[in-house]
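Example record

The entry below shows one chain as it appears in the dataset: sequence first, then structure tokens.
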Amino acid sequence: MDVTGFEYRKLSEEVSPRSPVLKNCVLAFLIGGLICAIGQVATGLSMEAGIEVENARLIGASVLIAASAILTAFDVYDSIAKHAGAGTIVPITGFANAIVAPAIEFKTEGLVLGLASKMFTIAGPVLVYGITASVVYGIVLNLLALFK
């Protein structure tokens, strides 16, 4: 059977279920906003307790990281992500989830060969390219400053 690209696309659209795009966008917005609001509340409470702004922001970020890691460990974060989709990929919580999930999956293989070695399988490339990009950016910025 010889099927053209157009025919294949048409058949695929007929049998594929329709995605509820509006519902997915609303859930992503609400859950992502809730995650950010939790971080802001933690920051605000820290500032109300008399902690300096910079340190209060670190506490807010730490609360989000810890909550994401704990929810991932108890298999709750993935359940939330099934409904919220991209809303759970708020950079700090999504990154914590990306580190904890593989570590938990491979913990039965031991601390070194399982937990430690698999922890950065997903996040490792992000770290490598992020650090590399920041170094290149820093070099370019310093070179531009020399020629001012």
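Notes for this example: The CA atoms of residues 43 and 58 lie 8 Å apart. Residues 20-146 form one domain.
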